[in-house]
Amino acid sequence: MIMRYPKSLPAGGTIGFPAPSFGCATEPYRILFDNALKRWESMGYKTLPGPNARVEKGVGISNDPESCASEFVDMYVSGESDCLISCGGGELMCEILPHMDFEKLAQAEPKWFMGYSDNTNLTFLLATLSDTASIYGPCASSFGMEPLHESLKDAYEILTGKRKCVQSYGMWDRDDLKDPENPLAPYHLTEKLDMKSFVGRTPTENVQFKGRLLGGCMDVLANLVGTRFDRVVEFVEQYKEDGIIWFLESCDLNVFSIRRAMWQLEEAGWFKYVKGFLIGRPANGAPMMNLDAHSAVLEVAGRKDVPIVFDVDLGHRPPMVPLVVGSMADVIVEGSSRMKVEMEFC
Q1: Rounded mean pLDDT of 301-324?
Q2: Which of 115, 137, 181, 303 is an S-S bond match for 155, by CB 3.0 to 4.6 Å?
């Protein structure tokens, strides 16, 4: 198998919105989703919310796992939509996996699926189980903010085939101002980007490295290790000539959980052909017992003698650069505030 890349979203095309994790059933996500649909439609696109898009019946996901899996597979293989954007993240999307038909997805015409956080369960497994590229990027409700941040525009341009290169954004959001009273609030950009780069354990200013992008939310990835859905060793062997750039970020994990997750992925053989690490700002990365978020990763990643870049625009502390899982990428980092990722669909 070789990596498969979907066709671009065409002008006037149809965007489907499945809810394999949370749906947009509560505020502020409901009004954000409504505004996102209006935005897409004003741009000439048709919108197709899935049957679970506005449902809140499940535990940690929109509906029961069987319904969520069926919705996703049906929408993916159907010709009714040209691409899919997940309604949201959540907590227990892993429970849909026993009901997923990844072989059916591998045989279907590839279609862009975009989401992040809990959606790692699909963005990651589409690549490793079905050799199909996906986009680790914003969920549907984010497109409802006013005004749109540049990162959302970048994600749109990847979907439409207008962009394969993304760059850091300079400022980030520590304290989200979005709430039911101010649902359409944009990112609250108060913090300057301050990346830290290493080669192995040695700090450096500038790094450049190339490999195939793979990764997502560490909370999800560590949970997949050793399950029947873990075919990562076979995947990295298949693409060992390219090597792997692991992009990793975390949500609920504290610094000790991050360190344990890194140990787990290493012991499972996932990092065998690593060419570099891109580490996002952790959502729960406060130091504990003399361990900080950088040291939590360096204990394992530092042994690899490859570039490691911390606090990149990735994950739960927005904005995030949208990355094509499975694509080849050339990463260039200059100092603490400039990162460019040039992706190739090969």
Answers
A1: 97
A2: 137
Q: Residue 121 and residue 123: Cα distance in Å, rounded?
A: 6
| Average pLDDT over every residue of 210-227 | 98
pLDDT digits (tens, 9 = 90+) for 27-50: 999 999 999 999 999 999 999 999
How far apart, in whole angstroms, are the C-alpha atoms of residue 42 and residue 181?
25
| pTM over the 0.85 mark | yes
Task: Note the Cα 165 to chain centre separation in Å.
Answer: 16
Taking the C-alpha atoms of residue 288 and residue 277, their distance in angstroms, rounded to an integer, is 23
Residue pair 322/136 in contact (Cβ under 8 Å)? The answer is: yes
Q: What's the pLDDT score for residue 178?
A: 85
pLDDT at 19 over 90: yes
Q: How far apart are CA 152 and CA 247, in angstroms?
A: 19
Indicate the residue type of 127. A
Using the CB atoms, write b or e for 63-87: b if 16+ within 10 Å.
Answer: bbbebbbbbbbebbeeeebbbbbbb
Q: Tell which residue, 111, 58, 57, has the closest CA to residue 86.
A: 111
